[in-house]
Amino acid sequence: MLNGSKQAQAEGIRVGIVHSLTGTLALGEAPLRDAALMAIAEINQAGGVLGQQICPIVEDSASDPATFQQKVRELAQAGITTFFGGWSSTGRKLAIPVLEAFDAQLWYPVQYEGLECSPQVFYTGLCPNQQVEPAVKWLLEQGRDRFYLLGMDYVFPRVSNKVIKAQLNQLGGSLVGEVYPPLGQKDFQEIIQDIRQVQPDVIFSTVNGDANIYLYQQYHAAGLNDDELPIMAMSVSEQEAQEIGPVAAGHYAAWSYFQSLDTAANRDFIQRFQARYGAQRVTSDPIEAAYTQVYLWQQAVEQAQSIAPAAVRAAACGQTFNAPSGQVTLSRNHHLQKPFHIGQILPTGQFEIVFSSPQVTLPQPWLGAETYSTNGRGLIIDMLAEVSQSIQYSCELDQKSRQLAEANQQLQTLSDRMELLRRNLSSQIRRSLDLNTVLNTTVQEIYALLQVDCCQFYGCEISSDAVQIAPSHQAGTISPDWFELTDDPIANALKSYFFEPGLIQRQPLLIDNIERDRQLPEPYRLALQAAGIRSLIAILVDVSPQRAGLLTCQQIHQLRRWQRHEVELLEDIADQVGIAIDQSALYKEAQTAANRAQQQAQQLAQAMTRLRETQAQLIQTEKMSSLGQLVAGIAHEINNPVNFIHGNISHAQSYMLDLIDLVQGYRASVPKPSPAVEALLRQIDLPYLKEDYPKVFASMQQGTERIRELVLGLRNFSRLDEYELKRVDFHQGLESTLLILKSRLKQTSHRPEIAVVKDYASLPLVECYASQLNQVFLNLLSNAIDALDDNFAATPAQASTCPLRPQPNETQLTDRPQIHLRTQITANARIVFCVTDNGTGISAEVRAKLFDPFFTTKPVGQGTGLGLSISYQIITQTHRGRIWCNSATDQGTEFWIEIPISQALE
Fold first, then answer.
1. How many CB atoms lie within 10 A of CB 402?
2. Is the pLDDT of residue 285 over 90?
3. What are the beta bridge partners of residue 352?
4. Where does the record place the Histidine kinase domain (predicted)?
5. Which residue of 239, 673, 772, 900 has the lowest C-beta tally within 10 Å?
6. Considering all CA atoms of the chain, what is the largest pairwise distance in Å, rounded to the nearest integer?
7. How confident is the model over 376-422, as pLDDT tens digits?
């Protein structure tokens, strides 16, 4: 608030600028502030007024007439006597008594309904005979005589439409419709439907503010044509047309000024305005009036050499000014003599002037009654003033009636919502045992229903020596953020009220005005007040001797008198929340017990699974051990006689050669053997015997060597002497396994022989458990053979043709069964082995369970489901490696294993 003569002197000449900067009227009214400020800045730059700078005080009337009156009163109380602003007639009429009380002056820049001439107001906009009457006359001359009157429900449209109806009766026009939606109306669909039915020639619109945007857009969307049914607007200027957009093109407006006026003064005005506010800004009739009236005031002050309203009033009448619209003159009736134009809206938002009056129009706010020479002129003017006043009262009565109906509706809605809230919370508690859900729903519903600034739930932990209070759920916002405070003033205040040593206060805490509260100790009250809280209510949620809660509502922006029904509602909710907390605690205990039981059951199931796996692994290990012992025993038993035979073959061959040499010697010594010897020689065919016996001995030697190889392979596979970690030849174990499975690789009645393609890299000795690794080889190769048996048991046309990766100098046999073996060494010293087959492949569902114990796809009695599971454990646990499978249905299968070369490196 500005006060004090010294402050006023230091600030220069203070003037008030009161316009709607927010709300439905801000669209057209906010630019008027800019125009006034521009004129003041220019005057100040030129030296000011009476040698002093003009100091504007800007206030927002928020599109509310009562707020306009209040702002004028506050500034007048601060010593300001000159005001520029206003828009709605209701606001102006409410302000006039305030202006009279403080002898202040208002410069009003907007067209209005006339029937008023207050000495406290200079009307620089248009009155009806300068805008409405010539617009109606022009429309009638264009052959548009069926009028539909559309105006907002306040004084200007209603009075203006009375003038229009009288004019239509006088000039032969007709009225086919008349409606007054409330200020700020957004839905014009019913009105447009009514227009379609009555079929007027023209819509005469006194719609104001941003409602014009919705009107023109919906009018265009309904397909109403501006040529056949145009709108003549009294409140659509360039500012509104720019916001409405191209849908307004073709319609009309009547003003004393358009930006499209082609005069030097106007071009200079537009250039200065856009240089100050931006090239995209437009000027308009109200903007021009708001600018012009500041200069008229300045001229009057300079002539009067005073800013006193009485002196300015006397000096103002007769002032002229070269305005952007042309030369204007301030008449003795406080109205301006102004020109008249009709413009048609262009798609750009500008106006093409289609009619201009030949000369300025003299203002006649009393509909020409002021020109009467009769003695009853004063009475007529007084009666006309009563018309305007009665219309205002009627509008105010209608508005209050609507407000009362809305208040009753809101009260009924509030009652319905309170009952719904009770039911909703009860249902929520029954439906959900989750305390977090219940509390969050509670604060959100209370916040929305009571329309408080903030609703919170505080959890309270009570012990014999302390009470801990902390907010846990919140709806709405208060400042600062209580969840981040280390010393929450609300928590401290609640603790002081509800929890005394050995006593819990169960009565609600109700504070309508924190400044006057006497329930809280002074430090806590002051802390809440300093935090910005103005009203507070808190209800105890009684749960148990160790646990409680508090439901709180705070008002920050305004005081609130808590109603009894609100307190009762919060008490009911607190009871239900207490039940929810109890139920939640019981549910948690039951859930905890169930979780413990479930965990124990899972542990038992896991133990049983591990036991079965261990048991199966022991069985499998024992089987492999027995197999190894059997193979080793057989190998040992075979090895001895084979070694004996193999070792004696060379001696037998040597002996036989000696005997042959002896026979040859005898033949040389005895050329003529006896008949018996001749017969024996012919019988044994000595030449053939001499030729064939080396072949026989060579064949026998090869056979014994093959037997020795088989025995060695059996011993290598069993590895009875290598059950500890040792360095072995990886490929040797693989070859031993192939030897064991050689009979399964041979051709059968339903498939060709399985080709084994080997792609071995040069590998160092691998540190491993050789017998266990051989067991993995056996499982993987056996599964590959099974897959090929299944696949190639089908007809050749049905068999899978899975492509194997090509290898150097090798031909793919994709139409025949094939197993591909590859080994390689990685850069991080690990051995990688891959077994690939072109069998039936494995689906994703089966592949996900391959390594699960006891999982098998083989028929009952043909598989245990342990082979791959045990292989997985051998590779991942025993050898700290990896094993995985790549496969898809009808795409063959790859099994990969990867183990470190040295276990010590892992």
1. 12
2. yes
3. 344
4. 633-903
5. 673
6. 192
7. 555 555 555 566 566 555 655 566 665 566 656 656 655 655 565 55
